[in-house]
Amino acid sequence: MGTTFLDKFISAGCIVLPEKLRPKLQVEDTDKWFHLRSTPSDDNAEDLNFLQSHPQHSLITSITGLSKVTIDCCRLLASGWIYLTYNHSRGVVRVYVLPDDLDNGSIPRVSSNLRRDRHSLLSQLDYSAAAWNGAPTGFFIPTSSHPPVFDTPASNLTRPQPTLLGMFNRIPPPDPRPEQVEDVDVYDAMCCLLDSDVPGLTTTLYPYQRRSAALMLQRETRSQPVLDPRLVKVVDQCGKPWYYDAVTGASYREPRYYDRPRGGILAEEMGSGKTLICLSLILATKHIPTRTPEIFHREAHPFRPKVGSLMDMVAACITDHSIPWKHLFGSDASSGLEYANCSAAIRRNPGSYHIPPPTGPRSARQRGAVDTSTRRIFHSNTSLILVPLNLLQQWKQEIAKHTVGLRVIVWSSSEKQPLPSLGEILGSDIVLLSTTQFENLRKSGKAVGALNLLKQVHFKRCIVDEGHTLGGATNFNRRNMQLIIDELQITAKWIATGTPSKGLYGLDAAANTAGETRDQSLEKMDLERIGSLATFYLKMRPWANHSSEVGDTPAQWAQYVTSRWPDLISTEDNCLKTTFDSVIIRHPLSELKNILPVVDKKIVFLEGSYQDRLTLNLFSMMIIFNAVQSERTDQDYFFHPRQRKALLELVGNLRQASFFGGSFFSPAQIIKSIETAEEFLGEGKVQVSADDRTLLGKAVKFGKLALGNSIKDCANLFRELPVYVQDFPFGAGREWSLDNKDGDPVCTAPGIILELQKFLQPLLDAPTALQMMFENGRLAQRGQEERTKLIEAQTPATSTPNKVLAGNTELGQDSSSPVKRRATILGKNVHVKQVASAPMTETIGTEIAAPLARTRLISTASAKLSYLIDQVVKYQEQEQIIIFYENDNVAYYLAGVLEILQVQHLIYARGLSPQRRADYVATFNQSSKFRVLLMDITQAAFGLDMKSASRIYFINPVLNPQVEAQAIGRARRISQQKPVTVETLVLRDSVEEVIVQRRNEMTQAEQRKCKSILDDKPIYEWILNAKILPLPGGDGQPINGPDQMARLQEPQFLFGRGSGREIGHPDEDILRADGAVAPRTMDIPIYHGVNGNRKRRTPSARSTPVPEIANGVPPPKKKARVGFVGVEDEGKT
């Protein structure tokens, strides 16, 4: 048995035996390498160095005794899976492994027991060169489950393990290689993309966008082989490479490859133009049709029932072989000439192929009878785009803005609109659907026709915008969207999202994640989502392999990746890195820094007004009352585990109170709590520490002080935010005030001021009529009526009593009607107009009557509100502003003041219909009238484009930086023309200061664990140990009403500029999103819905459209052959 015999084996590693376990040999030279017989027939005359049977048996017994698990080395040796040699004097056993890709015909490899034994043996070998050469440093304790990685730099061995976030941010940037593409048409399209010279694209691409789009095209068309991600390239003792599967123990001398998936994840940064990248890809390839998959190729040509014309036969040959033709003599011909007869012949003979009926068991979720017929699939140039419902209009606008000549079909959620024909779909470039409507194709029986129509088309690609939502799929739980996509024929599948999973986002190159405390459970959740996308949507092999497939083995992502994290990253080319590099396309944030606008972020700390601190102290008072009287253990204790829901409500109200909380805690509630506390102290039934007694005494003292505060009483009575107005008309402010007092300034509310503006609006320039109205008492009478009406309108929020815990303490429920306030901010019953309304009737130069000209708003009860008013008034002329809020009441209070100051604004709140949301975005971006957008922070996580705004305010600090980054990303976009200013408002001495401090200290893992601020221990303890804050002017000292407020830096006049104008709501005159801009040069109309009668708008002219010039570069010149086709949508919000 010579050297040539061992050449086919892998020189894997060694087993080092202690001297007491070495077998006794009856030979003189013990420094030789003895061979172990696989079978008795191995006794070859050419090799005399075989161990005798008894020493060999003892040696294998010793090896088994060293193993952590039982390994049947005899069986491995006898089956020919391994080969062993032994040096007695050195106590070293060399292990040679037969690769799985050799001698399969003579040595079967199907035994699961032998595979398990081999895996156990390989995981316990000493792979050091010293041991192999007979000089072990001592008894070996395995520390690694795999051999040394091939060609690994020494620096990598000592480099700290990166986090999953670090791996994501080190994905190599796109590097497209057109020279590797064999298809001439694809090569030309890639060159057009890299040169940003794509016909029909009216916007010049940035270099990084060109690279990303070109690489997307390369991955769609070229099946580049990649190493099986289960395998690690390692090195044997002779320096030769081999490939090892650390999970199963499989060993190969030669690598195994899989084709890279056609498609992937476009994970460019938020605001970097992912939509534009996708549109440029579609434009560059719209003339290239799909091809018949290899498994469905037919040998014989189709049979014609009668002899066709030469033109028809040539046309059929073109379509059957998927030869691009539209750019040569179709409607998109670069020559400008259209050969109508040739085009008609090609369309009469569409390319197609047939697929056999499905085999195997029927799916449990499959509705109706199983289709056992052969399906005919038609080739197309069409891309299927699925987007969230609230982004549907935005995609239509982006298509109109950046492209000309695209044929687009839009399916909305309307069921009154038609279903396009198969020919119209085959002739389109884009079929655009909302994900909601797409999923309904499987839910609704009425949509069977639409689904069957889509199943007849072979789509060029499918792009799912914000497709990270598909990451929760499993073998037994998949969304309808994925099930439908699986039924369709699609060449390439893409997901467009800046964050493929919650913990994966763009990171500054200077940030260091290696040393950060990692939370493996959170990283594993991210891994599961990435694995789900790769397995169930992208169908990446081997993760998508099925056990029924012949010649391949299934691979579980959880087994190879998730369960081995983070030890998996100890190898440079691990299966996770291979998967990341194969499916994700993104540029590091450092390459986009000079393209994305500069963001100036700062924290603005505000000293709370007297009323702010009064409200915060009331919450502290209730927490103290509850803590002491419940002895901090009872179930009535706010912080008892069973009161988690109540505590969350309390904390939510506390956060709202940092803006305004005057309507929390009525005088009756405060009196009841104080009396209970005094009774508790007087009875002395429960022993209380001196500290708690002092704490309770301070809380009681403060409660009595709060009871005497007239502004607080007014805020609670009217459920309105108090403000002060100076120079009230004719000094007649008593009837229009909250406190029913004479004097100047007047304590009133925005709602009362608004009614005053409406009442006096016809008389703005009529001083005589105003004087008569004052003298005859009509002004006072109307004020009293409005005041009474406002009191009567305040009804309890619920019919059930408020929750009361120990010490008769309540959670601070705001008893104002949330239904009424929510209806206000949602703008119910507001008419949405196609065009802006007529301008204000007031003309420039109109003189305001003297009694009204001096009336000014001078202060509010909220320090944050006063600051925001100053900021909005200061910047609204030059910049548009987004203000993020967390609570509907905050939006209500803020909108009320903006309205009386005639600041046009929109409220993007939860509960708005998708159409109305799109209308608001279109209006804010395109209308100069609306200067401020109030947006619920929970609605800022999708791909909304609010590039017209350059100034952002957060009313409350956001604990999770990713939520904040998503919100800022609405304005931080490459199309932004100004630097972006971001300010976060923080009330001093409140829990918000702790939130800001903790956000800077928390690791990524800690941030992701916090579902609410109560999940962070320091914040929790701050609330737990709430203190009574000193009030401005000193506790117990009398302070007049105006001094209890937060003054405006610049008092604001209340009459003029259209004050009191009769409007239904600040949201009037908004633009329809689908009417603001219309896609241009459509060869077929845009459709909506799946039922009803089709509606077309006949082109009124065939004039050449004037394309816009983007970034100073005019679009390609093309001869116009069709007129405009508008968008006709009669739906109303």
Automatic annotation (TrEMBL):
One of its GO terms (molecular function) is ATP binding. Pfam families: Helicase_C, SNF2-rel_dom. InterPro entries: Helicase_ATP-bd (IPR014001), Helicase_C-like (IPR001650), P-loop_NTPase (IPR027417), SNF2-like_sf (IPR038718), SNF2/RAD54-like_C (IPR049730), SNF2_N (IPR000330), SNF2_RAD54_helicase_TF (IPR050628). Keywords: ATP-binding, Hydrolase, Nucleotide-binding. Residues 868-1027 form the Helicase C-terminal domain. SMART domains: DEXDc. Residues 796-818, 1089-1120 are annotated as: Disordered. GO terms for cellular component: nucleus. One of its GO terms (biological process) is DNA repair. It comes from the Eukaryota. This is P-loop containing nucleoside triphosphate hydrolase protein. It comes from Apiosordaria backusii.
